[in-house]
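Re: Re: token formats

Sure, here are both.
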Amino acid sequence: DEMAGHYRDAGITRVVSVESRGFLTGGALACKLGAGIVPVRKTGKLPADTYSVSYDLEYGQDTLHIHRDALSDQDVVLLHDDLLATGGTALAAIELVRLFHVKQLYLSFLIELDALEGRSRLAPFGEVFTLIHL
């Protein structure tokens, strides 16, 4: 409720949720905001044509995908995940969302690990809102 309340007047049309824990609260946010839900998933999980981006992890590399018809330039997007640590996964998801030239992008996380300073990497792309700071 608190997260949805933060975005109540933002005109969110789509909540883009990052696999997989982001789906848990992302779906609830989309429902509360009256918005559509768009999954960002790992390789081989989405059934139609996708855009993809690879990114570095502390222990290797990974790839995220989004359907090519998931968003439009008229969408106001809330990119949501459960945890903001270094910001690497979120940056990859942002790169995917930016392919659609959306109207506005907001970033939300349930938990932020402040010492890892991921917020500073994401701030140039939109407002960052987090409920719990550790």
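Second one below.
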Amino acid sequence: MSTRTRTRRRDERGSITPFVVIVSIALIMLAGLVVDGGRQLNAKGRALAYAQEAARAGSQAVDLTDPRLDLVESQALRAAAQYCAQAQAEDPTLVTCRPSIGEVQLPGGTFKAVQVQAQVRIDAILLGMIGKQTLQSSGTALARPVSGISDPDSGKQST
């Protein structure tokens, strides 16, 4: 082996190192998107579940003397807020749970409904390396009292 061949081999040593570093960083970022993206989807499901349950809790406050079973707004808001407070006490990632009164327009008329907006905030695992420390997901639900058995309610809101 000549001196020139040995020198060339020595000069090429470590030339693949920058490629390995760049590919490794790209793979870690991709893993971060997969892991933290999945966690954020899970958080969205939890936020939606909290909103739905709080809305259902509030929609049980009805005026039994009214044949339409309209909501008693103050009691409905109080019941939904009570559910939200209990959920926030048990789950520190639930940062917002806000009930309000809305309306649903159906062929049978316009009905009052309890609307709840919930937000869940979680810490990022791998995306924290690029400065995205927290991930937020939210959900909104609407519930109204229904008497008897009926067709599915068309007043659903998309999530």
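The mean pLDDT is 83. The CA atoms of residues 26 and 111 lie 52 Å apart.
- S.
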